[in-house]
Amino acid sequence: MTDPGSAPASEAWTLAFAGPDASGGVVRLTRWAERAWYWAYIVSPSLGLVVVRDHELAAPRRGGPLVVRGDGLWAELIEETPDEHWSVGLEAFGVRLADPLDAERGERGERLPVGLDVEWETGNGSFGRVDGEVAVGAARSGVAAMGRFEHRVGDEPWSSPSRRLFWQRDVSEGHAASGDAVRLELGGAGLPTAASVGSVRLTVAAVAIVPVPRRFVLALVGGEPGWGWLEWCPADPELVGTPPG
């Protein structure tokens, strides 16, 4: 049992998945000492950008199941087989944003019920296959994608400028890069339009902004090398939120 006095400042579990049809999602549960954050960002050409986000959840008990409940939100992450198989479930209300910049304008958008029921199984370390179903409003669609599952301790996403990128062609072939190895091309709104690592160039299919103290960008990327996600915290972002108290 973990001594609460020695518990890390934060602990996060993230599933990010993407497919060649320019659809995908990022689910992240972050546990702080007293409360938890939950994010689900789902994108596709037909759905657009759909967001479920709550920064005022009771923290799951350390050593207990990773389940959070809030106003119009229930979510769980279950480790079916250690380091090999996770199940991720969500029933919540979210919003569809017409413009990713609306995340910094109060996240106002079309309110919709959102459901997610997917499973990740490793094919090579943190890289693997993601299968299941996503529901937004009355629309339901199957998920058959490549994805990465990650467990990180004590790493706040806005703590410093950063770039992290992963892409994946199949279950066994996944790649990741971070820091100065990742080069970005930016558009007129200052948001990424492409990301490169060496000779590998991936175009941005969708962008989401997470309203945390520093601007934090999630971008669905893809191309001939494969599909995946970019996380980017710019060097001089505008402050857009408040940290957990």
Computed Rg: 17 Å
Count the DSSP helices: 0
Strand content: over 45%
Shape: globular
Distance between the termini: 25 Å
State the secondary-structure class.
Answer: mainly beta
Order of helices and strands: EEEEEEEEEEEEEEEEE
Largest sheet strand order: 1-2-3-4-7-8-9-10
Overall strand count: 17
Average per-residue pLDDT, rounded, comes to 91
Report low-confidence residues grouped into runs of 5 or more. Answer: 1-7, 241-245
Give a quick account of the main beta sheet: strands, pairing sense, barrel closure: 8 strands, antiparallel, barrel
Can you give the helix content as a percent range? under 10%
Task: Work out the count of structural domains.
Answer: 1
How would you characterize this protein structure?
The chain is built from no helices and 17 strands. The protein has 245 residues and is mostly beta strands. It has one domain. It has an eight-stranded antiparallel barrel. Strands 12-11-17-16-15-14-13 form a seven-stranded antiparallel sheet, with no helix packed on it. It is globular. The chain starts with 10 loop residues before the first strand and ends in a 12-residue tail after the last strand. The N terminus and C terminus are likely disordered.
